[in-house]
Every structure is written in structure tokens, then in C-alpha cells.
């Protein structure tokens, strides 16, 4: 650690216990680098004692603006009720779709390699997985699609996908209806929607779960 800077900060702050920091430095270095304990403590002490604190009067070049604390319009006393669902197992009740700004991630099963990067990146866990087999026939978790009820359209998954299996598309009600996969529901609801089964802005080429 930069013990000289640490000593100066402790002195400038005025509320940090100097002895506590000295003990912390000794404990941090004592086990692996015992020969460095004393030099670092001396450096800390010099930084603490040799710091020069000065107050400078305004030079008049700029007008002084007093600090004003920001006060939000809504607080605990007047914030509108709502926003929290207290029911046990309430995931099925949450709907993040109003947060979207006109675009959605569109999943293309034919390009997906099931790497899971989208799942790890998604802040709302809206990707639906099912037990299946990989391209070599081995048991694996296979991505089925997106439950758009829980998708707020942040598009982080589109950025992280290494094979462009997720693309940004303009949100259309029919597109969302035909490609959404239920995150919570009966097993038969977990139906993969292949890219070849629908046109982006037209009728599907073959029947799907929602037909």
C-alpha cells in the first residue's frame, strides 16, 4: 500500500485513528513480508506528521456558490403507494415490459451455442432454459427463449452474445406475442420458437404455441 499517502489522508480526515491504521499495516505485511513492516510504518508516520494543511482565501475570480442539498420531490412521506409485490413466489406477477423503450432482444435458436453469457448478463433473469442435448448429443441445458414479461429491454444480452444469436429489433406486439416463452408455467409452455417459424413483421410459416 502507499503508506505515505495513507498517513496523509488519515491526518487530513481528522477522524481516522492513527494507531488503528498502524496496526492494520503491520498485520497486512507481517505474515508474508515482516522485513517491510518497520519501513512502511516509518513512511506512514512521515506522511502523517509532515503533511501541511492550508486554507486558501477566495481569489475573487469566480463567484462563490453556496452548497445546496438536493431534495427529491418524492420522499417517504409523499411517495405514491405501490411498486412492491409481497406475495410469496411473486415472480409470475411481475411485469417489466412497460420499462422497454421500443426495442427488444430477439432470440435466434439456430445461431445459439448455449454458452449462457446472456443469462449471466441479464439483470432480470428472463431467459428460459430446459434440459436437452447439445450439438454432440450430450445432456445439457438448452436455451428456449425469452419471457418478455420480465424483459425491460436493456439489450445487454445483445451486446454480450458472441454469435449474434440475439439481435435488437423494433418492438411489435405480434412479434413479442409469437416469440415470448413463459418463464413460469406448465412444461408445455416451454416451446422453442425457431427463427424459421416466423417472419419478423408477418405471419408465421408454421404453427406455434400461441396459435
Automatic annotation (TrEMBL):
Pfam families assigned to the protein according to its UniProt record, in alphabetical order: Fer4_21, POR
Cofactor(s) required for function per UniProt: [4Fe-4S] cluster
Domain 4Fe-4S ferredoxin-type residues, every copy: 103-132, 141-171
GO molecular function per UniProt: 4 iron, 4 sulfur cluster binding; metal ion binding; oxidoreductase activity, acting on the aldehyde or oxo group of donors, iron-sulfur protein as acceptor
Signal peptide stretch: none
Annotated keywords: 4Fe-4S, Iron, Iron-sulfur, Metal-binding, Oxidoreductase, Pyruvate, Repeat
NCBIfam families per the UniProt record, alphabetical: PorD_KorD
Stated name of the protein: Pyruvate ferredoxin oxidoreductase gamma subunit
Species whose genome carries this gene: Candidatus Hakubella thermalkaliphila
Amino acid at each position: 500500500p502507499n503508506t505515505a499517502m495513507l498517513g496523509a489522508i488519515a491526518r487530513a480526515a481528522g477522524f481516522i485513528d492513527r494507531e488503528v491504521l498502524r496496526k492494520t499495516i503491520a498485520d497486512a505485511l507481517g505474515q508474508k513480508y515482516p522485513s517491510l513492516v518497520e519501513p512502511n510504518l516509518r513512511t506512514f508516520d512521515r506522511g502523517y506528521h509532515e503533511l501541511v494543511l492550508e486554507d486558501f482565501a477566495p481569489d475573487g475570480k469566480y463567484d462563490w456558490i453556496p452548497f445546496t442539498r438536493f431534495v427529491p420531490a418524492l420522499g417517504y412521506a409523499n411517495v405514491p403507494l405501490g411498486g412492491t409485490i409481497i406475495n410469496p413466489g411473486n415472480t409470475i406477477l411481475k411485469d417489466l415490459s412497460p420499462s422497454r423503450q421500443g426495442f427488444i432482444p430477439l432470440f435466434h435458436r439456430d445461431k445459439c451455442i448455449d454458452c449462457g453469457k446472456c443469462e449471466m448478463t441479464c439483470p432480470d433473469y428472463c431467459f428460459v432454459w430446459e434440459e436437452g442435448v447439445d450439438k454432440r448429443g450430450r445432456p445439457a441445458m438448452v436455451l428456449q427463449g425469452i419471457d418478455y414479461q420480465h424483459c425491460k429491454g436493456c439489450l445487454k444480452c445483445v451486446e454480450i452474445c458472441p454469435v449474434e444469436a440475439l439481435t435488437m429489433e423494433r418492438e411489435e406486439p405480434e412479434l413479442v406475442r409469437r416469440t415470448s416463452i413463459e418463464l413460469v408455467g406448465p412444461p408445455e409452455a416451454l416451446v422453442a420458437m425457431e427463427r424459421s417459424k416466423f417472419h419478423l413483421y408477418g405471419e408465421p410459416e408454421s404453427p406455434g404455441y400461441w396459435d
